[in-house]
UniProtKB/TrEMBL annotation:
Organism classification: Bacteria, Bacillati, Actinomycetota, Actinomycetes, Micrococcales
Alphabetized UniProt keyword annotations: Cell membrane, Membrane, Transmembrane, Transmembrane helix, Transport
ABC transmembrane type-1 domain location: 128-312
Source organism: Arthrobacter sp. K5
Lipoprotein in keyword set: no
Name of this chain's protein: ABC transporter permease
């Protein structure tokens, strides 16, 4: 009689677990190892007290990291303040030596007293407001002009070859050289000041944007072409966002050039319908041979430049670095 029974597979012992290939964890940048602790505790089969303690330790470490990031880094505030205090002490020490007459090198308290006088007269507020609104308005108009021009030159090779050297030449040309020509063309009006600001800021912004576009990987353009992006969409949605680091550097340099150009124009172009700005205050101190007014104007010009950097450009640059994962190695 034939044996029709099929062979029976050997039973697998329930006590023996099938071997599985280990999965390599993805390496993350976590100096405290908190994420690894949490992952290890959650993926274990046992729920013993040791695992729970490790899980709590990992969660506490993650929470402490978040608190540390949210905490204000007082060194960023205290160190610059300490540097300013040291400079004031050195300044006062030099004045105390009596190497120069007090009317030539006033002390910090003399300048502070002059600040109070200018504030009481209202000329300090007028000068700061006039120069600040001129500088910001001129810079914003420069950005509106330079951005499309920079994108066009970066995208169209013949235009870049034709106008690139000219833009670079205008960037190195001292903007104060435009003041006499602007006075002849526009007279002693605000148009003279704004023209000098434009000629100082626009070339720097254009060159910064072109430099940022040059650093974009070619794969970005290939992806945009595959997705069917038009030239305008490619420029606005792909090229410009990818070129932000270089573009931001150009904006910072453009602001610096525009602020310096503004001061040069206000110092030279005096009278007419041009208002009283910080450059005018500096020129007034020179005419009166009053070093306290001169030093007050210099310190105000310096303070405005520092505040624009700290309140406008530094937060934007920090957020940009954070979004691109480049802040870890930065000293900011």
């Amino acid at each position: 009689m034939p044996n029709n029974s099929s062979p029976v597979a050997e039973p697998v012992s329930p006590l023996v677990e099938p071997e599985s290939s280990p999965v390599e964890p993805v390496e993350t940048k976590d100096p405290t190892g908190a994420a690894e602790k949490v992952h290890a505790a959650l993926t274990r089969s046992s729920t013993g007290s040791a695992d729970l303690r490790e899980l709590e330790s990992g969660l506490d470490s993650l929470q402490s990291d978040a608190v540390r990031k949210a905490r204000v880094d007082w060194s960023r505030v205290l160190l610059p303040v300490a540097a300013v205090v040291v400079l004031i002490i050195i300044w006062q020490f030099y004045v105390s030596l009596g190497l120069k007459r007090r009317d030539q090198v006033p002390g910090p308290m003399d300048v502070l007293e002059q600040f109070g006088t200018l504030w009481a007269e209202g000329s300090l507020q007028e000068a700061v407001w006039t120069s600040l609104q001129r500088g910001l308005l001129g810079f914003l108009i420069s950005v509106a002009i330079a951005t499309p021009v920079g994108l066009l030159l970066a995208q169209v090779a013949p235009l870049r070859r034709a106008f690139g050297p000219l833009i670079s030449g205008l960037q190195v040309l001292p903007s104060v050289a435009w003041v006499p020509a602007a006075i002849i063309w526009f007279g002693l009006t605000d148009a003279t000041v704004y023209f000098v600001v434009f000629m100082g800021a626009i070339p720097s912004i254009i060159n910064g944007l072109i430099s940022g576009v040059d650093q974009i990987p070619p794969q970005y353009r290939s992806v945009g072409t595959v997705l069917g992006a038009s030239r305008l969409q490619m420029a606005v949605q792909i090229i410009l966002p990818a070129a932000l680091p270089g573009y931001l550097s150009g904006l910072k340099q453009g602001w610096a050039f525009s602020w310096r150009s503004l001061m040069a124009a206000e110092i030279i172009a005096v009278g007419g319908t041009i208002g009283f700005g910080l450059g005018s205050m500096l020129n007034q101190g020179r005419d009166l041979a009053d070093m306290t007014i001169v030093m007050s104007a210099i310190l105000l010009i310096l303070a405005v430049g520092i505040l624009i950097e700290l309140l406008v450009f530094a937060p934007i640059e920090k957020r940009l670095l954070q979004r691109r994962g480049l802040l870890a190695g930065s000293t900011r």
